[in-house]
């Protein structure tokens, strides 16, 4: 594993827990943090040891309080476009990962922090978490995918309200509108996230990857394209050894032993 300054990673039971470690700035994403996040997820994608990832922030106050405002403040038009495209590419890598990523939101997830959490496949929030897209209050708009992913997750009405108003939602409200999957106490956040990951890890790894692809790529196109994609991936899953094992194990009333083949 490459040694990184701003990102910590611990692996156990096929789950990698990745922490953004810049608590003195509430884990704000400067370019160095973004690049390290990218490197970390590139390694995770190719790791055969890791089957699921939990992403969180160091400290009890923030998941990530946004893109680093001190870097944004000096950007001109051309550089700001590059900045947005770089952030989007890093978050895209996370969304396209071949294994599920769960955001464990341990406090503020604002601006780029909420955009990062939304690039993950599932979200668990601590009761003290607060989420929002406050960019318009700074004179800019979300640039790391927020205008697109928030509307897809919670629908256009709530997305307009949150992005145009710039206000924050607390964990319970976030769960009510479908922005987070689960809410728990701060003490239970990592255990709850691990339980969600462990639930996925019981299943056939290739089937999980194909299902993730079907959902993600399906959201990018029309229903007809999504259904065509689903039948292709369904057929691929039916060609795996694990499919033989899973169906046979059911018929023999035993637990399957999946090999990821
Ligand atoms: N970029 C850069 N630095 C940030 C930051 C960000 N997005 N968010 C917080 N920080 C820094 C603060 O400047 C402060 O640094 P300092 O101690 O060197 O002054 C430190 O993190 C602690 O933040 P502080 O504002 O003192 O904490 P708080 O508890 O009073 O407020 C927040 C917490 C999250 C409400 C507040 O920090 C905030 O509004 N942050 C910006 C959120 C935002 O607009 N994000 C979108 C950016 S596009």
Describe the structure.
- Helix 1 (31-46) links the parallel strand 2 (15-20) and strand 3.
- This protein has 2 domains: 7-201, 2-enoyl-CoA Hydratase, Chain A, domain 1 (Alpha-Beta Complex); 205-251, Orthogonal Bundle (Lyase 2-enoyl-coa Hydratase, Chain  A, domain 2).
- The strands form 2 sheets. A 6-stranded mixed beta sheet has the order 1-2-3-5-7-10, sandwiched between helices.
- It is α/β, with parallel strands linked by helices.
- The chain contains 11 helices and 10 strands.
- The mean pLDDT is 97.
- The longest helix is centred in the N-terminal third of the chain and has 19 residues, at 77-95.
- The protein has helices spanning 31-46, 69-72, 77-95, 112-119, 146-154, 156-165, 171-176, 189-201, 205-220, 223-238, 241-251; strands at 7-12, 15-20, 52-57, 62-64, 101-105, 108-110, 122-126, 130-132, 168-170, 182-184.
- It binds coenzyme A (COA).
- Coenzyme A is lined by residues 25-26, 28, 65-70, 108, 110-112, 134-135, 138.
- Coenzyme A binds at residues 25-26, 28, 65-70, 108, 110-112, 134-135, 138.
């Amino acid at each position: 594993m490459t040694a990184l300054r701003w990102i910590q990673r611990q692996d156990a039971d096929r789950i990698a827990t990745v922490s953004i470690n810049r608590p003195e700035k509430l884990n704000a994403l400067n370019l160095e943090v973004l690049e390290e996040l990218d490197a970390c997820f590139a390694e995770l994608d190719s790791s055969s040891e890791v089957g699921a990832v939990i992403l969180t922030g160091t400290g009890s106050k923030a998941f990530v309080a946004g893109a680093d405002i001190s870097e944004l403040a000096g950007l001109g038009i051309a550089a700001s476009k590059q900045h947005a495209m770089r952030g989007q590419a890093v978050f895209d890598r996370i969304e396209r990962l071949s294994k599920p990523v769960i955001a464990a939101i341990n406090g503020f997830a604002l601006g780029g922090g909420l955009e990062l959490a939304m690039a993950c496949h599932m979200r668990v929030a601590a009761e003290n978490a607060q989420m929002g897209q406050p960019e318009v209050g700074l004179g800019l708009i979300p640039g790391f995918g927020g205008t697109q992913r928030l509307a897809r997750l919670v629908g256009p009405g709530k997305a307009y309200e949150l992005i145009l108003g710039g206000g924050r939602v607390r964990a319970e409200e976030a769960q009510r509108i479908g922005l987070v999957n689960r809410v728990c106490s701060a003490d239970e956040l990592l255990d709850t996230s691990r339980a969600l990951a462990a639930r996925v890890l019981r299943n056939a790894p290739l089937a999980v990857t194909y299902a993730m692809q079907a959902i993600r790529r399906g959201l990018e196109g029309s229903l007809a394209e999504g259904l065509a994609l689903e039948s292709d991936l369904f057929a691929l899953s039916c060609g795996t050894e694990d499919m033989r094992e899973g169906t046979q194990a059911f018929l023999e009333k035993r637990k399957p032993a999946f090999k990821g083949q």
